[in-house]
Write the structure tokens for this entry.
Amino acid sequence: MTVSNYGDSLPNPYVLREEDEKKKPKIAIILVPAIGASNLYEKGIKNSNSGYAPDNSVLMVRNYVTPPATKVANYLRKNALDWEPEQSDQYGWNQAYSGTYHDFLNDCQKYDKFPFKPFVYVIGYNFFQSNLQSANRIALRTKEILQKSKFDGFIYITHSMGALPVRAALKMVDIKHSTVSHQFLSIHKKCLGVIHVVAPNFGAPEAYIRFHRGVTMDNADVAEQYVLGRTGFDFAVKACFIPSMCEILPVREYAKQTIIAVKNDKQNGISALSNPLENLVKNVLSKQKSQFKKVDGLNEKVCLDSLKNNLQSAIKFHDFLGRYFYHSTRLVVVSGIPTVGIVNEKMQSKTVIGDGTVTLSSQKAAGNIDRQNIVEIVSDGKLKHGDTFNKVGKKNGVFNSIYDLLIDLYQTSRKSSLADSDTIPLSSELSALEVNKHPIFLNGQQAIFNKAVATTPVALEPKTTHR
């Protein structure tokens, strides 16, 4: 008797699933980390002698924890500008501090509910340089990623200050008549959007007061305190040689709202902050001038000259950046934690709602972004600025919020491409006022902007279960 092998004629569900996966569009998800969270080395080659790498405990203890602050500052002065992100593996995960990001990177790569096939990358950058220089590196690395793999599109995810060089990179390729836009046209065509997580869009008063009292346990762990400085002197003497530290100071009208010493100043933003900050740092350094005797080539004047140059660089950076946000931008903001919001003339602070480092108002200050594109997560008390991409962030619903926004950006881009496949959308900040300007990347003209439109975020209750 012949038995019919009826089952052989049925489609194999596992084969079908695999074929469906192959048909999905390939989307690169590119994470750009926060300040202080990239692994940096001389020529990008991993070693235990020279560089800055949170994942390299031997290097960090030897060069940042054990020596006095003045020796660390002199070390940064002589070496830091030349460091490069660690030579990357295929996806660059080793360029970002694993303690902060690997929970998210692994989870995101394995997430199975995307309507596309995700490829998760990291682009580290030298945060000891200006964010303008980091923007150029991010653009070059993004172009390289797009050239090596035939992706259908990509989406940036930024953490904290990582938003600034990404915004600058996208403005660099987005502005009409830009001298560099043609070189990076693939980025403009392929970018589906950006998700900024706890970004200091208007800067942070916390960045200002640290020059007076250092980094506290309220918004940083012990390791970060030791590395950046637990006292005003320890922080200030190092920060004088970190240009990007000045670029996260309060900007534009927000500076006068938060730093009382410049409330009535005729100038605005970082220009108004420059003299008070220079005087503040001068007083902080002069009280411990004996510390400089132990280090050759370093003194108060060297520190103050460097700070002054960095402040001028910060002014140029924000003149270039203006209020620019990519046309498809989404925000994840965190509230519920007391955050330095106002600093008075006596360097006393008043707290407002935020994530412990960046105020909620600064996180939300992103031009004309619709409120449905802002997700606010109320902290359970443990979720703070540096925890959004680790297990604490996952527990509070940050991961799921990012995944929902990734899907939203992908679906929005699909609808846009169906409506007009030949149109490349320009930024919401591009207007007739900017079309006739000819910005130069490193020395851009002052941005012209309108008053920001206030937004009301969508509040999400913290989630205890994943997906």
